[in-house]
Amino acid sequence: MPMWLNLSPVNFVPLNSCMISLLGTINYRTTDMLHPLVHTMQVRMTALEEQCGQQPELYYIVIAMQEAFDRLDYPSTFCDLLF
C-alpha cells in the first residue's frame, strides 16, 4: 500500500445536485481503500499509549490524519484536493 495517493481525475466524482459544476468529492472506492489504514493507525496509537503512556506528538499526528481523511468527503474542486 503506498504511503500517499496520487489522485487523478478518475478518482474525482462531480456533484450532480450542485449548481457549481466543478465541485465534487473523491469516489467511494478511494476512501474505502484509505479507511482501514486510518483505523489501523488509530488502533496502533492506542496500543502504544497503553504500553508507553501518552505520546502527545503522536496523538496530534493521528488527529491531523483523521481530520484530513474526514475532509476528503467535503465538496471541493479537483485542484483543491491536490493541494
Describe the structure.
- By secondary structure, the protein is mainly α.
- It has one domain.
- It contains 3 helices and 2 strands.
- A two-stranded antiparallel sheet has the order 1-2.
- Helix 1 packs antiparallel against helix 2.
- It is elongated, with a radius of gyration of 16 Å.
- The model has no long low-confidence stretch (mean pLDDT 85).
* Number of separate helices: 3
- Spans with pLDDT under 50 lasting ≥5 residues? none
Please list the strands of the largest sheet in the order they lie side by side. 1-2
Give, in order, the helices and strands.
EEHHH
Radius of gyration: 16 Å
**How many domain modules?**
1
What is the percentage of strand-forming residues?
5-15%
| Spatial shape | elongated
Q: Average pLDDT across residues?
A: 85
> How many strands?
2
Main sheet makeup: 2 strands, antiparallel
Q: What percent of the residues sit in helical stretches (DSSP H or I)? A: 55-70%
Given helix and strand content, the structural type is: mainly alpha
Q: What separation lies between the terminal Cα atoms? A: 21 Å
In short:
The chain is mostly helical. 55% of the residues lie in helices and 7% in strands. The longest helix has 25 residues, at 28-52.
Features:
two-stranded antiparallel ribbon; 3 helices; mainly alpha
